[in-house]
Amino acid sequence: MQDDDFRQREAFLAVVRAGSFSAGARALGRDVSVVSRRIAALEKRLGIRLIERTTRRIRPTEEGQRYRQKIELADELLCEAEEEARRLAVRPAGTIRVAMPAAFGRCWVSPALPEFLQAYPDIRLWLNCSDHYVDLLGDNLDMAIRIGVMADSRLIARKLADTCRVLCVAPDYLAQHPPLLKPRDLREHDCLGFTPMHSWPEWRLVKEGQQVSVPVKTRYESDDIDTLKEAAKAGLGVLMAANWLVQKELAEGSLVTVMTDWQPAGEDGVWLVKPSSQLQSAKISALTDWLVKWFAVPRW
């Protein structure tokens, strides 16, 4: 909306409401000549006469009366929109669109949400649970949970928890295959391939500042990490996975870690990312605070 257009409409409404150019000008705190020029410019821009002028009074034309009704309705809608926005700025309400990795969402975020929705009955959640990258700005999302190293400078990121990857196998697999002591030993083993991993089909390992990339061989690949975890438990090969994913299996002994002096690269935390931290609504603040408190308790 251009400033000149707004001022022209403002002058028109002031005059027709007050019943004269002079009264309308006083209401706006402007000279009569200024108000008259603005209405003349409005009529010229629209190509139609809006006000009939006589020496004693003014009267809106039929077109002017219809125009008045329309812009007064528009003003009412704008006022309602502004009032609603002010209310939502202080009262958590409305829809929050959130993206997160599917497996992580199932394991660690979904358990936090029922209580959140009970605490905030006017909030509605829309979840995108997928291991595919989503563009918050392009896909009109309010926030996302991401795992790894943050690189998108357009986003505001807040770390929720530390995480790392581990190499693990079923105990039976380890008993029946050569030892796994050094990165090159992986070449003699079947490795379970998580195809969305950025470096796949290589595994990158770090030790005391030294990084190596190992091309691994596999008989089993998938874009679903839970499927690969079950394959690892069945003894089908070596799995590289986040500690949050295999925490239960490591605790119960159905999987064991190997090559623990080498750290798989590429993952350092769980992050909550948003397009902006400025003037965020109450609903976004509410979910942000809830997730921060939820992950403040160690989960894995």
UniProtKB/TrEMBL annotation:
Keyword Glycosyltransferase carried by entry: no
Keyword Disulfide bond (UniProt): no
Annotated PROSITE patterns: HTH_LYSR
Residues annotated as domain HTH lysR-type: 4-61
Superkingdom, taxonomy of origin: Bacteria
Keywords recorded for this protein, A-Z: DNA-binding, Transcription, Transcription regulation
GO BP: any one term: DNA-templated transcription
UniProt-listed Gene3D superfamilies: 3.40.190.290, Winged helix-like DNA-binding domain superfamily/Winged helix DNA-binding domain (1.10.10.10)
Sequence similarity: Belongs to the LysR transcriptional regulatory family.
Name assigned to this protein: LysR family transcriptional regulator
Species per Swiss-Prot/TrEMBL record: Pantoea rodasii
